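Section 5.1 Outputs to date
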Amino acid sequence: MMRVYGLLVDDQTRCEHYHSAVDIIAIQFKCCGKFYPCYQCHNACEDHPIERWQSSEFKQLAILCGHCKNTLSIQQYMEVSHCPYCQAKFNPGCKKHYGIYFDIGG
């Protein structure tokens, strides 16, 4: 079982910052290799800046579905609105934060 760090409120990776029904993913941060539900949890628990995944690394299995515990590649995650394994819906608002985690250009 993948360990998820941060200010968790349940076992589906919801945290103090994001805890709606669709807030069920954790991201493996490139800088420390740890899975966190969000950038705010990372920043509360770590003493280093976030390092973004580069587009050449988008095949990395760095997204954890909190519902079924399967991992998705970054590319896979960015192309879907739900988990391809269990069909659980992901929060569409997460797209607003892609630039924090991933080097998406622009």
